[in-house]
């Protein structure tokens, strides 16, 4: 009986250590993976960035990829439409991030700080709640979902 208790203690301790080491929330979902842009400041895509005369600038798509080595990459697709002619531009960037709250079963919200790799995008911050990543950049809320 004593040997069984010792084995169970080791198994349970190993399980707790493994649980504390991964970046999951209470719902068991990992923060790593690809998030797709859903809304900007509460407005669904395409999002009107600005209009100058007859020229319309919109953001039409985007994604953020969080990797387990604490690097990220992002892609934002925007269009410029003038007199029915649409020009599309894809902006990309990458860098590193630090997530606070990761690896604990108590945290359901992770704070996340992004830094850039010299591409001029960043630093910026955000949060992850479940499968939703919210990034605040220059006062604008970008909401992504896994």
Explained architecture:
- This protein is mainly beta and 146 residues long.
- It has one domain (23-145): Lipocalin (Beta Barrel), CATH 2.40.128.
- The chain has one helix and ten strands.
- It has one helix at 2-21; strands at 33-40, 43-44, 47-52, 55-66, 71-82, 85-100, 109-116, 124-129, 132-137, 140-145.
- Strands 1-4-5-6-7-8-9-10 form an eight-stranded antiparallel beta barrel.
- Strand 5 and strand 6 form a beta hairpin.
- The chain is elongated, with a radius of gyration of 20 Å.
- The N and C termini lie far apart (46 Å).
- The model is unreliable at 1-22 and 24-28 (pLDDT under 50).
Summarize the structure.
With 146 residues, this protein is mostly beta strands.
């Amino acid at each position: 009986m004593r040997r069984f208790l010792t084995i169970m203690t080791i198994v349970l301790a190993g399980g707790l250590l493994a649980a504390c080491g991964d970046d999951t929330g209470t719902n068991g979902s990992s923060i790593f993976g690809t998030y797709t842009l859903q809304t900007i400041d509460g407005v669904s895509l395409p999002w009107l960035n600005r209009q100058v005369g007859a020229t319309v600038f919109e953001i039409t798509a985007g994604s953020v990829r969080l990797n387990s080595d604490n690097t990220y990459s992002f892609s934002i697709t925007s269009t410029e439409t003038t007199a029915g002619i649409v020009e599309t531009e894809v902006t990309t960037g990458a860098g590193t991030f630090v997530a606070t709250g990761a690896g604990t079963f108590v945290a359901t919200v992770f704070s996340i700080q992004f830094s850039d790799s010299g591409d001029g995008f960043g630093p910026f911050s955000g949060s992850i709640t479940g499968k939703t990543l919210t990034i605040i950049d220059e006062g604008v809320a970008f909401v992504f979902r896994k």
